[in-house]
Amino acid sequence: MDKKKKIHPGIPDLADYLRQGKLTRREFVRYAALLGMSVGAASQMVGLAWPRRSFAAAPKPGGTLKVSATVQKVTHPAQFSWIEPSNQLRQVAEYLTYTDGDNITHPYLLKNWEASDDLKTWTLNLEQGIKFNNGDGFTADDVVFTLNEWLNKDVGSSLLGMMGTYLDVTGIEKTDKYQVKLHLKQPELAVPEHLFHYPALVLNHKTFEGDFIKAPHGTGPYTLELYREGERCVVRKRNDYWQKGLPYMESMEFTDMGAELAPQIAAIQSGEIDFIDASDTSPVSAYQALKDNPNVNILTIPTNQTRVLRMRVDMKPWDNNDVRMALKLCSHREKILSLAYFGQGLQGQDFHVSPKHPEYCQKPIPEYQPDKAKDLLKKAGYPNGLDINLVVGSGWADIVRWAEILKQDAAPAGFRVNIQPVPNPQYWEKWTEVDLGITTWAHRPLGTMVLNLAYIADDTGKPVPWNETRWVDDEFSRLLKQANGTIDVDARRKIFCDLERIQWERGSIGLTYWINYFFVLSKRIQDVKAHPTGYMLFNRVWLA
Questions:
Q1: Would 169 be classed as within a structural domain?
Q2: Global confidence as pTM
Q3: What pLDDT is stored for residue 56 in this prediction?
């Protein structure tokens, strides 16, 4: 058999799981794609007709898309903590892969990839003939350089937390001009999905010196014309983009209208803007205000996006698990989801695994138990209750509402909650530092991804950059490492049963709901596909 067409030995096993009813056909395609099989071949193998792209009308080139979005200070893309700057700069630079709205991962700047039988060697084959917008050719040198930036402790990227457990710089090998091999320290199934983590923009190794705005050289469909923090970002169409005939729009303008949604809602109603990028705020109030507007489309998509009540376990009183559990027992989940997010989502269970993650192990919804919480506080040494400060971003309406409900429902247990609202940018400046806060976490297609980002330590024992709670549990880490390299669906889910139990019993978070996400756009925008992470994948979008 031609080596290029070799089928990973895990794929026949996945086909068996499909026949046994352990996987749906779409789940089969999802996993087979991760193992290097093309989506078309995987779909054909299981008789799944993958929908072809079609247009209601012929795309019309030209026009300027006007977007309301926060324009933040940007230097190194690998340091992104917000999705909004990635939505602006993903128009200029691109990713090695992309994961679509159905959570299927595809090659992008990669032509394809191959995984070894043991999932410890990954061969990345690059597309050829691609150029950066300054004329430099895209080669393996750019991939090696970019990967080294991600794994550089001085950069402090979340990608270090996600990938550093299984890859270090000595495992990155350039084998020729258009091929890179990754030699992992341990098996990992989700490598292709990790390459689409939103800080993972591919950099030009010849020109990048730590500040992308100073040398905005990417392979994307647009060039950066203007970037003024707190004001505007403007990108303009390239005429030499590697995807022939794209993009359709002439330019995109991102205007910073602040964190409050009310003026943005008014602007889209009046036609001043075409799209509200609410990927880092709470779009639910826009949904409520605009769902019946005849000139606005609301695209609703279920997600693994959530809000996390996070407790710093290295700071009192959250170093005491009885106190952490007591606060979690004060969550009336049905009430919170209904009042804070209008019921537009699913109830959570105090572990960071969604019912929509393929590894999810079904568990009961925890009950609201203030009396038990009061007993736990007494056991922890607080018989007269406890005063706590809860920091929240004021621009997230549902988070503020959740905090208000928690304050009310935690009072019978003895918690006296002082809510401290701050502007969203101020929250993000200290989101890993406050002892108690509520953080919004973006959608991740696999449960392993977010657990690796937020709940483990690096090789030196130091919590990874996005471990905002500083919680590290040896048993949890060992099981997660095992899950990362497990293809067998039942075995992977069994491991997750334990991971979920551990995070519920002695973890550092309260997680009460998973949200639906809303794309809010003018009806003049055509061919938009809603993405569960709020990504603006707009190469083929056009304006009527």
A1: no
A2: 0.91
A3: 60
